[in-house]
């Protein structure tokens, strides 16, 4: 159910409640019109307050409540110390109010800035979250959802946690899927299929987050702000977004960099078994690809297109887009006789 349906229902109930109070207790609210206005205003005020708390998680609320309680205890201890007993009677209430407001505010700010380990120092042997389930938050951007390799990593148990997909990322995927460009449309539909695949995986919970951050201009800025608010790890394929996250001290993983780090090391002299799929740019060359997409150029391989062959690595060329491997056929077959 959409949040706005719940908000409208609550506003209607508040308005009816105001009317009911005016009918039952006319000494509190005189007249049904005033009761309706009071109920509508009360419901609208709470909905506005709820709208202001977008991106404020239950974990943040719990931390703020604990900080308020801790600050209030300190203020109460100072008040009970009789430190202000000689202050004038008419100003003692102002001192107490300042104490509780000041220490309550400081306690809330410190608690929200602290992590779980800081709470463990205050309350030994007590954890604020169950340890039998990972509480890591995995925030996915549009590029990594379309790419799909993060789903493979989750299904292989390489990464665990609660998968967070913001509502604004879901809208961006839908816009791409509805595009007039067939390539963009295919990418968008692939992204939606990847999300369905993630939701079918019972090992990791997938949550759609409603935070929007209207003050931020683009999706990238909203993602970084949401990652900061939730303390989540951002997964992306966008190099620039990764650098922005790094500058703002947001934990992030670039799946392309992860894949590059996990590529097998190929050295000259090694043997590879590869299928030649097309001819090369130079004469008699054949081209094949490794499972990770690395291009292999095989000398004298043009006549063996479509066949699986053994190749000996001669050299490697590092380019801006990756590595190109050059090799020779291990067992050179005689050329077919001319008719």
Annotate the secondary structure layout.
Layout: H1 3-24, H2 32-52, H3 58-80, H4 89-113, H5 116-122, E1 137-140, H6 142-147, H7 149-155, E2 162-166, H8 167-177, H9 182-200, E3 206-209, H10 219-230, E4 233-236, H11 239-247, E5 252-254, H12 255-261, E6 271-279, E7 286-289, E8 295-299, E9 308-319, E10 322-329
Parallel strand pairs: 1-2, 1-4, 2-3, 4-5, 8-10
Antiparallel strand pairs: 6-7, 6-9, 7-8, 9-10
Helix pairs in contact: 1-2, 3-4, 8-9
Structure in words:
It contains twelve helices and ten strands. Helix 1 (3-24) runs antiparallel to helix 2 (32-52) and helix 8 (167-177) crosses helix 9. Among the domains are: 1-52; 137-261, 5'-nuclease (Rossmann fold, 3-Layer(aba) Sandwich), CATH 3.40.50; 271-329, OB fold (Dihydrolipoamide Acetyltransferase, E2P) (Beta Barrel). Helix content is 50%, strand content 17%. The chain has 339 residues and is of the alpha/beta class. The strands form two sheets. Strands 3-2-1-4-5 form a five-stranded parallel β-sheet. The protein has a five-stranded mixed β-barrel with strand order 6-7-8-10-9. A hairpin with a 6-residue loop joins strand 6 (271-279) and strand 7.
């Amino acid at each position: 159910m959409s949040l706005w349906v719940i908000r409208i229902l609550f506003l209607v109930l508040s308005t009816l409640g105001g009317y009911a109070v005016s009918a039952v207790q006319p000494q509190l609210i005189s007249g049904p019109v005033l009761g309706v206005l009071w109920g509508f205003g009360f419901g609208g005020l709470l909905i506005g307050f709820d709208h202001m708390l977008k991106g404020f998680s239950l974990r943040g609320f719990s931390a703020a409540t604990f900080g308020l309680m801790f600050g209030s205890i300190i203020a109460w201890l100072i008040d009970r110390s009789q430190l202000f007993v000689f202050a004038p009677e008419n100003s003692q209430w102002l001192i107490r109010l300042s104490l509780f407001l000041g220490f309550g505010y400081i306690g809330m700010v410190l608690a929200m800035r602290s992590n779980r380990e800081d709470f463990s120092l205050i309350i030994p042997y007590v954890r604020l979250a169950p340890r039998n389930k990972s509480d890591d938050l995995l925030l996915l951007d549009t590029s990594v959802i379309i790419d799909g390799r993060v789903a493979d990593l989750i299904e292989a148990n390489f990464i665990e946690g609660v998968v967070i997909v913001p509502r604004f990322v879901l809208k961006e995927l839908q816009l791409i899927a509805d595009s007039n460009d067939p390539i963009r449309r295919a990418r968008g539909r692939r992204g939606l299929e990847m999300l369905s695949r993630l939701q079918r995986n019972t090992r990791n919970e997938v949550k759609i987050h409603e935070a929007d951050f209207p003050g931020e201009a683009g999706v990238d800025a909203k993602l970084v702000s949401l990652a900061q608010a939730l303390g989540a790890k951002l997964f992306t394929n966008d190099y620039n977004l990764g650098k922005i996250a790094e500058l703002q001290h947001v934990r992030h993983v670039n799946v392309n960099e992860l894949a590059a780090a996990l590529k097998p090391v190929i050295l000259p002299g090694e043997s590879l078994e590869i299928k030649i799929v097309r001819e090369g740019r130079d004469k008699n060359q054949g081209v094949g690809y490794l499972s990770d997409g690395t291009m292999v150029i095989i000398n004298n391989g043009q006549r063996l297109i479509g066949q699986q062959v053994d190749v000996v690595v001669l050299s490697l060329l590092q380019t801006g887009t990756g590595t190109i491997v050059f090799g020779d056929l291990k067992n050179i077959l005689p050329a077919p006789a001319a008719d």
